[in-house]
Amino acid sequence: MLFDLIAPYTTLCLAGMCKNAGKTTALNALIQGAGARGVSLALTSIGRDGEREDLITGTNKPPIYLTGGTLFATARGLLPKCDATAEILDMTGIHTPLGEVAILRALSDGFVELAGPSMTEQIVSLTEKLKIFGAEKVLIDGALFRRSLCAPEAAEAVILSTGASYGPDMEKTAADTAFVAELLTLPESGPWPHMAGRRFARGDLYDDLPAALEGQGEALYVSGAFTDAMASQLLRRKAIPREVNVEDGTRLLLSRESYEKLRTRGVAFRVRRQNKLIAVTVNPFSAYGAPYDPAAFQRLVESRVNVPVVNVFEESQWN
Asked: Do residues 151 and 222 share a domain?
């Protein structure tokens, strides 16, 4: 099921609500699905993934297992940790703390560790190179707190992973997941003004938010991130714009509380380009405490989002 959902897209980003949300399990299910269908696949990561133990939390993680012929891009310093035999096809000139990112083709089945670019422009460039080397689909292992790298220019579609490791309160996990899903599926705005390198527009172009809020017009346009600090500035005013427009949902770096306060004040959010959220995966197991009831958790998330919801563990068993 999960692989069938990505069929229309060539670039896909996987983002997680937290560590141990089931993102790597979802990635492995997609790898299995590609192998079963004969689809040429390429993988890279925004941060680091595939290690068997999380370097920060010390919790166990599922490794990434590739089949021979799969393309992957990773930092050169991680090559000794990959037990799949691979040939280097290209050195990208993209540098990370773990070394320059190389493009490789797996010559045998085996485990790999991934570490890739940290900037959207680098992801876009790397994706194009992977396609040149024959990738029909490129999977980008992402992260919640770096959602901007899952922006529409970097990935055509997004899968969001959530799970019991987010916290012991299943209701809160589902609510926060639904909030992120809402940000990723906000409706598109009409045509934008020509920003001409300026940060804000509201009838005219402005360099800072206070000046924009003094301007005229019902719609505020923000080039770049819209943050909790900006939301606080709006909420302190009696007269506020009725619409806030951002480039895409990954640029809304808002808490659910700030977002709901602005919505209560009548503010609508719009995006220039909508992210394509195609599924939410749920992991009822926690690396830190008690698990959720699998069926109840899946039903709860299904009731809050408008995309398919997949139990990643069950998916990995039969895909």
From this structure: no
